Amino acid sequence: MTEKNRENYNKNYIAYVNSFDPPTHHFKNCLRAFGVGGFICCIGQFFRVVLEAFGLSGDELAGTVSVLLIFLGTLLTGLGVYDRIGRNAGAGSIVPITGFANSVCSPAIEFKTEGLIYGLAAKMFVVAGPIIVYGVLSGTIVGIIYWLLG
User: Fold this and answer.
1) The CA-based dihedral angle spanning residues 124, 129, 132, 133, taken in that order and rounded to the nearest 10 degrees
2) What whole-number distance in Å separates Cα of residue 58 and Cα of residue 86?
3) How many whole angstroms separate alpha carbon 114 and alpha carbon 77?
4) How far is the C-alpha of 32 from the C-alpha of 88, rounded, in Å?
5) Backbone dihedral angles phi then psi of residue 96, each to the nearest 5 degrees
6) Are 32 and 89 in contact (CB under 8 A)?
7) Which of 21, 65, 75, 80 is most buried by a 10 A CB count?
8) Cα separation of 92 and 73, whole Å?
């Protein structure tokens, strides 16, 4: 096969593959992700305002809002709603803390038929495990550097 034939073959193959690939609407996807992510953050802000009215402040307030958002993400995942939101919103539903709750809860639900140990416990942190490990590791390294400099 000559170089010219090889180039034509590659171009034809790429055109063939692209014919099966649906067109991507980047602007529309970004707009949806921004809207859904912003809406999730507005829900968190609503929780914050309501809890401030009940007298919470500081770390107690931040922790309670985080727990409520994690609970909401887990509940919606268990009901099958969060997956539909994620299909339409993309990264807008993954980035907030509710996306982290979804990434822990989804494998647990999916593999619960394999039992409590090999299914639920082993698969629960398949997606979120590396995030937790490297988050704790980098936090520890930054803390040690801060302690050495301070």
Assistant:
1) 140
2) 31
3) 19
4) 8
5) -65, 170
6) yes
7) 65
8) 13
In angstroms, the Cα distances linking 87 to 15, 36, 84 are 27, 11, 5
Banded model confidence at residue 1, pLDDT cuts 50, 70, 90: low
Structure confidence by residue, pLDDT tens digits, 113-149: 777 777 777 777 777 778 788 888 999 999 999 999 9
Q: Is residue 92 part of a domain?
A: yes
Report residue 102 as tokens. 């979804």
pTM above 0.85, yes or no: no
31, part of any domain = yes
Report how many domains make up the chain: 1
Q: Record the tokens describing residue 57, joined without a space.
A: 């402040």
Cβ atoms 47, 62 nearer than 8 A? no
**What mean pLDDT is reported for the chain?**
85
Domain span at 93: 3-110
